[in-house]
Amino acid sequence: MAWLILVIAGLFEVVWAFSMKQSEGFTRLWPTAVTLAAMLVSFGLLSWSMRSLPLGTAYTVWTGIGAVGAFVAGILFLGETANGTRVVAALLIVSGLLLMKLSDPA
Which parts of the chain span the membrane according to its record (predicted)? Predict the structure, then answer.
């Protein structure tokens, strides 16, 4: 259950990162509100998952989901480039996340 909660927390991290970009420096009300709400949910779920997952594993997976998710969201919704180097970097992050999961007996 902790792993599912952690993945959901990571997805909310993507939401707040994306909405923060949309807030234009917290100058737009609704994207700012979404950012703050998603941050609260993301941090809350992260802390919940840390009840049974090790700090290093939980935090690394959470930030990795956020990083790769923001990368994908930027490509899909903001027209950011997906050149070979960036894609390889994202794949390396995903590989690291899988290794973290495999290294944790929980």
Answer: 27-46, 58-78, 84-102
